[in-house]
């Protein structure tokens, strides 16, 4: 099968590598070598964009990777995934959930628990190249996740729910990976986004 989606900044053991539709760029392959031409699913590093960025020892240059990933989504279409309330949104003038930007991009607020993550893991998705009404259905769930993320609020820890491992925290649930790829496949490059300009979110 010829790949129909490029996955940027994947883990070395990423679930995407088992999906024939995906052309996967991990640390060894280097996402910055992506030549374009395909819609993308981007998981750029987030540790310098979150609330604990000041505690990170990551090199400052790592911040540029997420900005570059935004550009790829805007040019080629696709989806970018980052933690909810990531400061990347302000830095790149990305739309808040429910709004649209000049590229026709929209932001969805999701919980990865809906797709099988052990913890809620609230996440924002930036989508370009797809009309809001064409976004695949979201598998909303009501209830409480069985686990929490290590940096969860004290009130969550008080419920004595176990914490996920680092591997579980970082990995994309298989069902979510499939949803992201399916969504990216429906996206078009920037030149095709004009047809969506009159859509409402």
Structure description:
The structure is a single chain. By secondary structure, this protein is α/β, with parallel strands linked by helices. It has a single domain (5-196), classed as Rossmann fold (3-Layer(aba) Sandwich). Helix content is 19%, strand content 15%. The chain contains five helices and six strands. The protein has helices at 63-76, 88-91, 154-157, 166-170, 174-185, and strands spanning 5-8, 22-25, 40-42, 78-83, 106-111, 122-128. Helix 1 links the parallel strand 3 and strand 4. The chain is globular, with a radius of gyration of 16 Å. The N and C termini lie far apart (34 Å).
Set down the secondary structure blueprint.
Blueprint: E1 5-8, E2 22-25, E3 40-42, H1 63-76, E4 78-83, H2 88-91, E5 106-111, E6 122-128, H3 154-157, H4 166-170, H5 174-185
Helix content: 10-25%
* Envelope shape: globular
Radius of gyration: 16 Å
β-strand percent reads 5-15%
Strand order of the largest sheet: 2-1-3-4-6-5
CATH architecture: 3-Layer(aba) Sandwich
Poorly predicted segments: 193-201
Tally of individual domains: 1
CATH topology: Rossmann fold
SSE topology string: EEEHEHEEHHH
Number of strands: 6
The CATH class is Alpha Beta
Helical region count?
5
- By helix and strand content, what is the structural category? alpha/beta
Distance between the termini: 34 Å
Biggest beta sheet summary: 6 strands, mixed
Mean pLDDT: 87
